[in-house]
């Protein structure tokens, strides 16, 4: 005969059905689920992490120079920091802007004269208005303007002037990797009119946090993928040919012209001797030290502690002098 449940057992069974045990759920939570990063095979990444690190290094250098320029122009304490350097699609950059935002187009001219879309830059309106206020002699704005702020005609001119200060140093920031020149800046108040880059085109977006006294904002720089592809093609070509360091024409001549007036220490060594400490302590005026060298022997002329010339000792206008005989440096280089 089947076992008959008591009333208390029936009540316990019904209460358990009303509030099911969470034991199984806790067990599922404890099991760590592997996390996978989704990869879009329809639009694969075009630039490796190493190449993004190069861009990061370039704009780290850029932020130092730009912050120094803002400090000198606005007499304000400015700090800049690269937040991220990521490869994205152009529409992710353009969709984040409103219709009233102003973008700045800056063309780069590469040594191989290849054509590519310009760099696109944008500064948040709150930060720009703070800079404009400071440029006119006031204090920074305390309140952030509403999204989609419309600049007046005067503010547009000052916007252009300020961005000219900040973007003029782009070529200098890139110079450690590639000698490039920059074209004239173009200011476009209508984002939809810029058609040189399509929405699905790959771009590298550099986000730079800017803090000027109490005002904070962001400078966004969008570098088209076609432009970066041309840049890295030039760099790779120079590395393969071994002429990477010869990117600057007449570089040796230019460097020598810049350091021509630098003062260097030049000394002639008559000879060397080794004495004991007791001999040195007993030395008196008139003592003679034997250098174990013929009086007609050649001397060595040192430039900044480096041996450069062999020379002969003599006199010139009643002053001790040396006459250069041989270039030691060239002989050593030739033997190598």
From TrEMBL:
Key words, A-Z: Bacterial flagellum, Cell membrane, Cell projection, Chemotaxis, Cilium, Flagellar rotation, Flagellum, Membrane
Domain Flagellar motor switch protein FliN-like C-terminal residues, every copy: 257-328
Cellular location(s): Bacterial flagellum basal body; Cell membrane
Membrane topology: Peripheral membrane protein
Tagged with keyword Membrane: yes
Similarity annotation: Belongs to the FliM family.
Protein name: Flagellar motor switch protein FliM
Organism this protein belongs to: Ohessyouella blattaphilus
């Amino acid at each position: 005969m089947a076992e008959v449940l008591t009333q208390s057992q029936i009540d316990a069974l019904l209460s358990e059905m009303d509030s099911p045990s969470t034991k199984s759920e806790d067990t599922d939570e404890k099991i760590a689920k592997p996390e996978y990063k989704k990869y879009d095979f329809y639009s694969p990444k075009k630039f490796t992490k190493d190449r993004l690190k190069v861009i990061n290094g370039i704009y780290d250098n850029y932020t130092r120079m730009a912050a120094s320029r803002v400090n000198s122009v606005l007499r304000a304490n400015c700090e800049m920091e690269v937040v991220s350097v990521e490869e994205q699609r152009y529409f992710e950059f353009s969709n984040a802007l409103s219709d009233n935002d102003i973008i700045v187009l800056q063309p780069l001219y590469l040594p191989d004269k290849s054509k590519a879309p310009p760099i696109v830059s944008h500064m948040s309106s709150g930060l720009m208005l703070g800079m404009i206020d400071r440029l006119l002699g006031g204090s920074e704005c305390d309140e952030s303007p509403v999204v989609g702020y419309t600049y007046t005609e005067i503010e547009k001119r000052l916007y252009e002037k300020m961005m000219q200060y900040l973007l003029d140093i782009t070529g200098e920031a890139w110079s450690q990797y590639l000698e490039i020149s920059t074209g004239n800046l173009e200011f476009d108040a209508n984002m939809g009119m810029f058609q040189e880059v399509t929405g699905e085109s790959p771009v590298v977006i550099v986000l730079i946090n800017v803090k000027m006294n109490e005002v904070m904002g962001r400078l966004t720089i969008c570098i088209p993928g076609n432009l970066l592809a041309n840049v890295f093609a030039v760099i790779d070509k120079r590395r393969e040919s071994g002429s990477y360091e010869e990117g600057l024409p007449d570089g040796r001549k230019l460097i020598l012209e810049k350091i021509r007036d630098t003062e260097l220490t030049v000394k002639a060594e008559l000879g060397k001797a080794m004495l004991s400490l007791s001999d040195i302590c007993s030395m008196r005026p008139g003592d003679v030290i034997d250098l174990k060298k013929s009086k007609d022997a050649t001397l060595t002329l040192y430039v900044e502690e480096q041996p450069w010339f062999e020379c002969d000792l003599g006199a010139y206008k009643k002053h001790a002098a040396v006459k250069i005989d041989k270039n030691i440096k060239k002989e050593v280089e030739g033997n190598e």
